[in-house]
From TrEMBL:
Protein name as it appears in the record: Molybdenum cofactor biosynthesis prote
Length: 466
């Protein structure tokens, strides 16, 4: 049982080390003021370690002393030595990264983005035409068991981060049970479970999502002006979005540690005057605002004249904040991160059009109709859905069908079922991995240049999933 902490107090170092040593996370009790009543697991005090602890500790075979005193670590074993020993043992026990997810340029794809719906409650200018788009027949959409199965397959091959996208993922009725199922893959190696959302209905489901293991939110917001919001999204909802942002920040003050990034697509003539107000959101709030260069997708009427480059945005900010400085990031980051001196928050720039990050790309995408896209700006796709459904007469696999297929696999294996994926290893997995591996190996070194992208046929952004 993990140690409990009184609300408003912080656990001491001894308690933290004791909990970490057992592969546990410090958990807050339910927080009445925020109505976090579902479970003590709703808030995890040990921040980013919480979703990863069991996977990182048990998955590497590291065994902690069972006789650790409740108040701390055995005197003979200092924290620094113990951490060093664990890291060495983890490296020794680490498996080679999957060849199926490694392309010909040695890029290892450990980040999977899954679109779970084509539907959206907004009509953003850069995302889809004003009249909307024809939706695919429901039978072509991936079901929850299918998404969970594919998630388990990719995690078994080394994926450590899964992001659910759309459309708008919160409009999917069963998103919380889906997140709970994907969250159960933590012992298999999943470390992060993230969401990309417009925030309209997020505040209503946020508690349950945190309880399911949500670790990160990218929230799309292109203006801080309610009237301009309605122009750019063709819908109302600004107040609901701000309520969702405030809710995340409230929960984080109490230890939820949900990593929040606000994504803003900057378009000339529409919202470039709001660059500075967005930067100033981070004066006292722990928010990373990321400005995105306007990109061409089917139906969004892109033109180079509407695009504001990364360098131009930096210049605009430095007119008021000359101390804006680059800060180090991770090699696989899509954004270049900066900070204004004295500000709590950060500023990022996603520079797909003028300064691509293809050489360190570690992302794969599955569309809501089950196609694998190895590049956001590429138009090559391969169906995984058809292979998954082959044993179900090409029909969607609901929960009943999923359990039936699982039992067939167990019977076929005569009790020798591997637990590497939720349906064990067999011809289906080998065929899927072969198709995935071939698609990954075909991934180009970089996407097309700006002029070529504007003329390429690609799905509308809402049908890709961001």
């Amino acid at each position: 049982m993990a140690p409990m902490v009184r609300l408003g107090t912080r656990p001491g170092p001894s308690a933290l080390h004791a909990a970490a040593g057992r592969g546990e996370c410090m958990r807050w009790p339910s927080i009445g003021g925020l109505q976090l009543k579902r479970s003590p697991r709703s808030i995890r005090f040990l921040q980013s370690r919480c979703i990863a602890t069991n996977a990182a500790v048990r998955g590497t075979g590291v065994e902690f002393p069972s006789n650790t005193p409740p108040g701390g670590i055995p005197p003979a074993q200092t924290p620094s030595r113990q951490i060093a020993r664990e890291r060495i043992q983890a490296i020794e026990n680490a498996k080679p990264f999957s060849d199926f997810l490694t392309d010909n340029f040695k890029r290892q794809h450990d980040y999977l983005r899954i679109s779970i719906t084509e539907r959206c409650n907004l009509r953003c200018l850069y995302c889809m035409p004003e009249e909307g788009i024809p939706l695919s027949p429901p039978a072509t959409m991936l079901t929850t068991p299918e998404i969970f199965y594919l998630s388990s397959l990719f995690v078994s091959q080394g994926v450590t981060k899964i992001r659910l996208t759309g459309g708008e993922p919160t409009v999917r009725r069963d998103i919380v049970p889906l997140m709970q199922q994907i969250g159960s893959l933590r012992p298999k190696g999943l470390r992060e479970l993230a969401l990309t959302t417009n925030g309209i209905s997020l505040h209503r489901k946020l508690d349950a999502m945190v309880d399911a293991g949500l670790t990160g939110i990218n929230l799309s917001l292109d203006t801080l002006d309610p009237f301009q919001f309605q122009i750019m999204t063709r819908r109302k909802g600004f107040d609901a979005v701000m309520k969702s942002i405030d809710r995340i920040l409230e929960m984080n003050k109490l230890g939820a540690n949900v990593k929040l990034k606000v994504n803003c697509v900057v378009m000339r003539g529409l919202n470039e005057r709001e660059i500075l107000p967005f930067v100033e959101m981070g004066r006292e709030k722990d928010i990373e605002v990321r400005f995105i260069e306007y990109m061409p997708f089917g139906g969004n009427k892109w033109s180079e004249n509407k695009m504001i480059s990364f360098q131009e945005m930096v210049d605009i900010i430095r007119t008021k904040y000359p101390g804006l400085a680059r800060i180090p990031g991770h090699k696989n980051d899509t954004s270049k991160t900066y900070q204004v001196s004295g500000f709590v928050g950060k500023v990022g720039f996603i520079t797909s059009m003028t300064n691509d990050f293809c050489s360190t790309c570690n992302r794969l995408r599955i569309t809501s109709d089950g196609n694998l896209k190895v590049c956001l700006h590429g138009n090559d796709e391969v169906s995984l859905r058809d292979l998954v459904r082959k044993d179900n007469n090409n029909e969607p696999i609901d929960q009943e069908a999923f359990e039936r297929i699982k039992q067939i696999e167990m019977d076929r294996a005569s009790g020798r079922l591997s637990d590497s994926t939720v349906l064990g290893w067999g011809p289906r997995e080998r065929e899927l991995l072969s198709v995935i591996g071939q698609a990954v190996k075909r991934k180009a070194e970089k996407h097309a240049d700006m002029g070529d992208l504007a003329n390429m046929q690609n799905r509308p952004m809402i049908l890709i999933g961001g």
